[in-house]
Specification:
28% of the residues lie in helices and 29% in strands. It starts with a helix and ends in a 5-residue tail after the last strand. With 368 residues, the protein is of the alpha+beta class. It has helices at 2-10, 16-28, 30-45, 48-53, 57-62, 101-113, 261-270, 283-287, 301-312, 321-325, 337-344, and strands spanning 117-121, 128-131, 137-140, 145-149, 156-168, 176-180, 184-188, 192-197, 203-210, 213-217, 228-230, 234-239, 252-255, 275-278, 294-300, 315-318, 327-332, 350-355, 358-363. Strand 8 (192-197) and strand 9 form a beta hairpin. Strands 1, 2, 3, 4, 5, 6, 7, 8, 9, 10, 11, 12, 13 and 14 form a 14-stranded mixed beta sheet that branches. Helix 1 crosses helix 3 and helix 2 (16-28) packs across helix 3. The longest helix has 16 residues, at 30-45. The chain is built from eleven helices and 19 strands. Among the domains are: 2-154, no CATH class; 293-363, Phage tail protein beta-alpha-beta fold (3-Layer(bab) Sandwich). The radius of gyration is 23 Å and the shape is globular.
């Protein structure tokens, strides 16, 4: 039964609940963990390619459990620790029995490894960090889905992102990595960068910290298709609502100053552009979330409310239209949602009411 369960795990035939129970048992049961390592070792040595990636089966196993980056001792309301969170773990298909495990792998290895992905999904208030077998690290922000292939030794690697993530990817000769979002692709060799691409946001933001990346449209590098190159401390904002341009092409405009989102949209409209590149930015504002700090600069209350919703796992409704246009700059670290709202209400007076997992915000009426 134990061997059959391990094989089903390796074949990705366990349900999410069964996978969780399987991982819990490996952590608690030393003899079962040893059996898992023995079977996994057989799997590893049957393929030269996979042996290079997973030289130690226990190391691969550890990638299933995401490491905490912060203690969640801040408040009951704020569920914003970097906690372990695994949505789906899809593992390479192997044989149907330990006795002929090696034979089956040799027969089916090529077709299986190229098709199997691991998918991670975080909810509001959750963040995770993963380390890939090649040493690359990825930080995953709240409300995000990320898919990546289990076989990282291919020459062309594609990752799929819906949400926000910070990538610190190892540079391996002759290997190219593409991060695919809903409307643009980011091509990298080995570098550190942030991508923010939520479906319900009107923009896709890419900020480069180290190395070099290329931004291209969804059709890729074909004749006539333009790519945009970013250097460190540069940021590109793609405007989804640029209806005057086809999504199959870029019309780029570059500016030297850091602008807020509304001004970027105005610049894009005035220049008949759908991609605005800021030549000099402080990446900390865009990347501080992975260190547990929510930073914002000249954000409208309406945009900031979306950030707070993902950060604190709470629904926010602003009842006053003028309040939505108010702008805020600052950062939150250990504050609870109530402390954050209290701080925001000092420069722009407003009232708020917290009911369970929702917040209502009203304009504060002052007597003259």
């Amino acid at each position: 039964m134990d061997e059959n369960t391990i094989l089903q795990f390796l074949q990705n035939k366990l349900s999410p609940a069964e996978r969780k129970a399987f991982l819990d048992r490996i952590e608690a049961d030393a003899s079962f963990r040893a059996l898992f390592k023995e079977i996994k070792t057989v799997w590893s040595v049957t393929s030269d390619n996979e042996a290079k990636v997973f030289s130690d089966p226990e190391t691969e196993f550890r990638t299933f459990r995401y490491r905490n980056l912060m203690n969640d001792e801040r408040s009951v309301k704020r569920k914003n620790a970097f906690i372990p969170f695994l949505k789906v773990a899809a593992i390479v298909v192997v044989s149907f029995g330990l006795a002929f495990l090696a034979f089956s792998l040799l027969e089916n290895k090529k077709s299986s490894t190229d098709l199997v992905y691991t998918e991670i999904e975080t909810r509001a208030g959750e963040k995770s960090q993963i380390t890939l077998p090649d040493g690359s690290k990825i930080w995953i922000n709240a409300c995000t889905k990320l898919r990546y292939p289990n076989n990282l030794q291919q020459r062309e690697i594609e990752l799929y992102l819906d949400g926000e993530a910070f990538f610190d990817l190892k540079k391996i000769p002759d290997r190219r990595i593409t991060v695919r979002t809903s409307q643009i692709n980011v091509k990298v060799l080995g570098t550190a960068f942030n991508v923010k691409s939520y479906k319900d946001d009107d923009v896709i933001e890419t900020t480069l910290v180290r190395g070099k990346i290329e931004i291209e449209n969804q059709t890729g590098k074909k004749a006539g298709n333009k790519t945009v190159t970013l250097k460190p401390n540069q940021s590109a904002t793609f405007i989804k609502s640029s209806n005057n341009l086809s999504l199959k092409e870029f019309n780029e405009v570059r500016i030297n100053t850091t602008e807020d989102l509304d001004n970027l949209k105005k610049i894009a409209t005035s220049k008949n552009s759908n991609l605005v590149v800021m030549n000099s930015v402080n990446p900390e504002t865009q990347t501080s979330w992975k260190e547990g700090r929510l930073s914002f600069r000249k954000e409208t209350f309406e945009n900031l409310a979306k950030m707070l919703e993902r950060w604190y796992d709470i629904k926010i409704e602003i009842k006053d239209q003028e309040l939505k246009k108010s702008r805020f700059s600052g950062s939150f670290d250990k504050e609870t949602i109530e402390q954050a709202l209290q701080a925001l209400s000092y420069p722009v007076p407003f009232k708020y009411k917290i009911e369970k997992d929702s917040v209502l915000i009203f304009r504060k009426i002052t007597l003259k």
